[in-house]
Amino acid sequence: MIRVRQIKIDILKDTSDELMNKILKKVNIKKEDILNYTINKKSIDARNKEKIYYVYEVDLNIKNENIILRQKKKDIIKIDSNTYEFKKIGKKNLKHRPIIVGSGPAGLFAAYMLAMYGYD
User: Fold this and answer.
1) Which of 28, 29, 42, 45 is the most buried (most CB within 10 A)?
2) pTM of the model
3) How high is the pLDDT of residue 44?
4) DSSP H or E run through 21
């Protein structure tokens, strides 16, 4: 699987066809070569108020991946898997429940993951 970064699309022209055209142009392949793709990240580039862009990162499964990677383009990289697995650490029951300091994004995520794995 490869990841294609920095695909810019004008905010007024944002369609799936436009995204596909930009992917094909950036990677220099035909549509038939793409087995499937997923959008990994979509952000907005509003540094220039006259021209606002969506900036995409897309993960592609394509035929002949090695040929594309040999070109060594800076915005095309090989990735393994983009799934995260929460690892259980320790085998003993806790004497005291975990304490999470802060309720920002990291604290809320930590609380969520602990709750999913059965911690109070």
Assistant:
1) 29
2) 0.64
3) 94
4) helix 16-27
Residue 24 in this model has a pLDDT that exceeds 70? yes
* Distance, CA of 118 to chain centre: 28
Pick from 63, 67, 75, 69: which is nearest to 26 by CA? 75
Question: Could you tell me how many residues make up the chain?
Answer: 120
Quote the CA–CA distance of 24 and 17 in Å, as a whole number.
11
| Whole-number Å distance between alpha carbons of 29 and 24 | 5
Judged on CB neighbours under 10 Å (0-12, 13-18, 19+), 116 is exposed
| C-alpha to C-alpha distance for 115 and 120, rounded to whole angstroms | 6
3-state DSSP call for residue 18?
Answer: helix
User: How far apart are alpha carbons 66 and 11 in whole angstroms?
Assistant: 32
In angstroms, the CA 40 to CA 67 distance is 22
